[in-house]
Amino acid sequence: MATREIHLELLLGKQVLDSTGKSVGRIEEVRAQQRGEEWVIEEYLIGTTAVLERLSAWTIGLRILHLFGAHKIHGGYTISWEQLDLTDPEKPRLLCSLDDLKALDTSKK
Predict the structure, then answer these.
(1) pLDDT in tens, 83-94
(2) Which of 8, 22, 34, 88 is in the most buried spot, having the most CB atoms within 10 Å?
């Protein structure tokens, strides 16, 4: 399999589109795991909760949102690396339906 390099910092903030071209959110965080000397992307996080995770501000961020009346917070989604088409890094696209994505859990933080 051919490997390809994409500068991760250029993906952050990019809008992810579904198969119909509708936006499902922006890439806010990336989870990777070290394998030997390389880092391998495992999943991408999109949505409000992903922003809080990126800023490491779960506890205080969720409390502030609750203070302003946001009692039911849609956390966003986790996209596994194989569910995202990065052929055009400027326009990342889902390779699955929105229903196939795992919702981020805001209650565990």
Answers:
(1) 999 999 999 999
(2) 8
